[in-house]
Amino acid sequence: MKRPMAITGWCGLGATILCAFMFAGCDYQAPAIRYHQGDSAQVVPVPEDGAWQLYSEAGLTPSLYALTKGQRLGFERQNGLVIAVAGPHRDAYPDGTYYWRLR
Length: 103
Fold this sequence. Notes:
This protein has one helix and eight strands, in the order H-E-E-E-E-E-E-E-E. The chain has one helix at residues 5-23, and strands at 33-35, 43-45, 50-56, 63-67, 72-78, 81-86, 89-94, 98-102. The strands form two sheets. Strands 1-8-3-4 form a four-stranded antiparallel β-sheet, with no helix packed on it. Strands 2-5-6-7 form a four-stranded antiparallel β-sheet, with no helix packed on it. Strand 3 (50-56) and strand 4 (63-67) form a beta hairpin. It is globular and about 30 Å long.
């Protein structure tokens, strides 16, 4: 049985509006580089230009660095500390969980 066009059209419109509301304002980005306490650290080239922000699961006030594609970004371990690397910047933190995210 064929449904009237008006009902089918309204259902499609309703689904579209529902999807738009679900995804509106979603700005979550997965961390680009993560370091978990005790894991091996990595430093990689930045995949794209932008402002990269360092976060910690302990609530560290985020640090922000403007980097260009190809600069170094990541973490190193040294003397029991985590070294956050962002281009020429190197900041030491206690061992914990940290991550970089493009802002």
